[in-house]
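Practice problem: predict the structure.
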Amino acid sequence: MSPAGAFSFVLHSHLPYARQAGRWPHGEEWIHEALTDTYIPLLDALLDLREEGVAFKLTIGLTPVLLEQLADELIKENFEEFVDEKIRRAEADCARFEGTSDPRGRLAAFWLEFHQRVRSCFVDRLKRDVPGAFAALGRSGHLDILTSAATHGYLPLLSTDSSIRGQLRTGRRASARHLGAEPRSIWLPECAYRPAYQANGTLRPGIETFLEAEGIRAFFAETHLVEGGRPTGKAAGDAIGPYGEVRRRYAVPQEEASQKQGTTFQPYYVGKSNVAVFARNNRTGLQVWSGEHGYPGDYWYREFHKKDGVSGLHYWRVSGAGVDLGDKEYYDPAHASQRTAEHAAHFAALVRGLLTEYKAESGAPGAIIAAYDTELLGHWWFEGVEWLARVLRHLSADPEVELTSASDYVEEHPPREFIDLPEGSWGQAGTHFTWLNGDTEWMWPIIHQAEKTMEELASRGGEEAVLNQAARELLLLQSSDWPFLVTTGQAADYAVQRFVSHVERFRELEAILHSRQSGRERAAELYELDKVFPDIDYRDFAP
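Answer:
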């Protein structure tokens, strides 16, 4: 008997480029925190599952700029200093509360053990090679690892086809270099899609055309782009974690709903291409993302926002809806772990029920794509990694559910229909607004001028090292992180500083090329600052 359908977690892993960009409150510490809270615990859990013989499979995106940072020796050294400091703080708290009845003494011991395990896993189990550990899980068939645009550039708003091609080609090349295999599928930055359109008498291809040229078989879209309705979930602002915790400063009018009808239970070929699109399943998404109904808001889970005034460690739990930070109750790791077991069983039953219901209604099995930012698990929702591992155990043992990956599903169950997607993203209101608004519109003419300049430089040629470094600076200034951080107010000054610095470096390199003097030494100096994409080819940016 065939199963009711297929399921895949799709985890999107990305951080702004932050090498040598300072520490708290933003900068390289973003990477250290993600390693400590998310990436290393996740790898530890997945390797445990593999050793237990659990037949799990999931899809994970690792953006090329994130891979470059995770593989960087300087970042590794700084990370070990970071986690060692966490261990020292936990040890100091153990001593501070020793011989008292303060519950923080017990919790300090919990955090000490947690951070010691993270360090041991990184050094001993992963051999300080996080990308290599992900790659090994890919080779064993447990992970389908997605690529992305090189620096998470917001592709629909780029003005030249050469920049879209350069972002995708450089990203694909970096993913293959770090992971030892060509990526089959991609996570488009911000789930942002643009169809083909006419501009000044010229046809600009849809994003799928560029993906097909790079050998990409599938990508992912926000729910409403396929279902044809209004934005829901993250796009409608009903979210927690990294999206729900940012400051919302705009109210965007909703567009009228499209009449296009599709389903999130099936992939579709996009336009006239052989590239398939999966839409994020809203029901399973809201079970985690929803600020009202999502698991991470459970009262027994660790409270992210309240930290000890001396050590900075987390000693409190959510406690209740709307409970003031000053009234939070102490965290109970054992009780929280029990809640992950209950929530994992609930989620597994939800997946089975949705697949069974779809098969009964349609007469054919379907697939569910449950997509989340990887950093939600562990960092924002501390218990999320344990929850995910428990869900995988449940579903791997369920004969009604086929655990799959996006790429495998497209190969084994090719789409039967084509779809024309509208323009949109998983940003606010499902539009491009988060990245193009009154606070960020000044950035885009600068980006577009740099794109056109890069085309001219690549066409004319010159000193290869300088041209390649100019292409790197272009990629870095195109990052979607800079306008995102400005819009949300999370780290606006930092984002502007990073954006402007890359623009200035790009213009300096342009001047060197126009002067026809050697700029090899200066290009080498600038490369050492960010040290990304050693195999970049400026020719990818030619018109």
